[in-house]
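Problem 12. The chain below contains 134 residues. Write out its predicted structure in token notation.
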Amino acid sequence: MKFSEHLIIAVDFDGTIVEDAYPKIGKPMMFAFETLKKLQEQGHRLILWTYRNGSRLDEAVRFCEENGVHFYAVNKSFPEETFNGNMSRKIHADLFIDDRNIGGFLGWGEIYQMLTNTNPPLPEKKKSLFSFFK
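Solution.
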């Protein structure tokens, strides 16, 4: 499926953008920042959607900014939103990218391919033992 309109994409931090090392910040996942920057360049709005809060959240936001990703909003649907106990903590997004998806985290290469409708290169066929006798 190819998305032609600009999407709001909520992205988890630990286990998705970086390897899960909570409360520390893990190593960046392969292609995470490259993919996120490319999605932003294409006009998609990224929301950081994470369990982190307080100083741990500030560290995660700063880490992403140091790696070239600036979020439209953090743990909310839009920058001006203020959270109070009378409303749902659920945010509005078109897509959620999280390591806790059914089936686990696909990897940033596959996510980008799904969003841009590009096909992954086909692996070479493995030769069987019998092909050597032909």
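Discussion. The two ends are 41 Å apart (CA to CA). Students who got a different answer should revisit the alignment rule from Section 12.3.
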